[in-house]
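Dear Dr. H.,

I hope your travels went smoothly. While you were away I took the liberty of generating a structure for the chain from your last submission, since the lab meeting agenda had it listed for discussion. I wanted you to have the full record in hand beforehand rather than looking at slides cold. The sequence, exactly as received, is reproduced here:
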Amino acid sequence: MRERSQALPRDDMKVGVVLPHWSHGMGGETPRPADVLNLARTAEDAGLDSVWLVDHFYSENYIDMAYHGIEMPDDLRGVKSGAWECWSLLPALATATQRVEIGTLVTNTGYRNPALLAKMADTVDDLSDGRLIVGLGAGDFPSEHEAYGYPFEGRVGRFEEALQIIRPMLRGECVTFDGEHYRSLEAALLPWSVRETGPPILIGLLHGGPRMKRLVVEHADQWNCWLAFWNSHPEAYCEPHEAMLRACDRFDRDPDTLERNVTIAAGRPEGEWGAAFGEGPLRVEPERLAACMREYRDRYDVRHITVWLDQKTESGIEWLARAAELAR
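The corresponding predicted structure, in token form, is as follows:
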């Protein structure tokens, strides 16, 4: 077990937005990378605290959502979509913005060699002058893995090995590792980024069994609970929050040292949502969204809320910024 850090400072809550970089993601239009950068600048100018990219480049939602227990309409069978590659976009985000944190929700460690991924993250962190949050996960879309030739089975085992290379490298260590899936021999980050402690590591979970919860407790600085595809109301967070507290107790982690990040789906009352979302999104005015954000903070000590908007456009981001201002 690694040494525990000091308890987190009790700063006010941060609010971020998931940027669209996939087919038809920007108000029904497919954005170009330049459009994604413009939305990031809009978010920064509007006063939001962070901007996020997902790590997907291919999806057949009829298959992928079914894997997560979400039934999609038959007319989506065989319909495929794609996205711009997030680690190619992140350096551009780093230089296109000046203040907001940038991060991934979340990087699939199975798609890239872990030592190389640590090097990529270190480079982007320096480009952003220390604003990167390294969101990591084990992967979740079976169609994407099959299409691009990555194994889907055994991905949690690969994820656990990857963490044993990525985390110490980002903390400045020289890493030798010989596992079933990965190996490294005195791998180090030379040169090293602007932050002496390296960027924070966030581990994201959709459902997350006992093994994934243990990996959060043992390796993460931040934990993201993805509620966006299910139920974004604050009461829905109670069960995963209590489960993570139990995991902290079991594996000797002070829960005050694990920053909580929650991803919710939210938008205007009249907003339209895809079939994957059901009745779970917060369909509210900014004042009500602000109240929900404050409940996440005051009831569960959530310090960072990331929002999947119904309208991922400039006007949608400005709508979210109004709610964020009211929440603070």
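Two observations you may find useful: Confidence is low (pLDDT under 50) at residues 1-10. The first strand starts at residue 14 and ends at 18.

With kind regards,
E. W.
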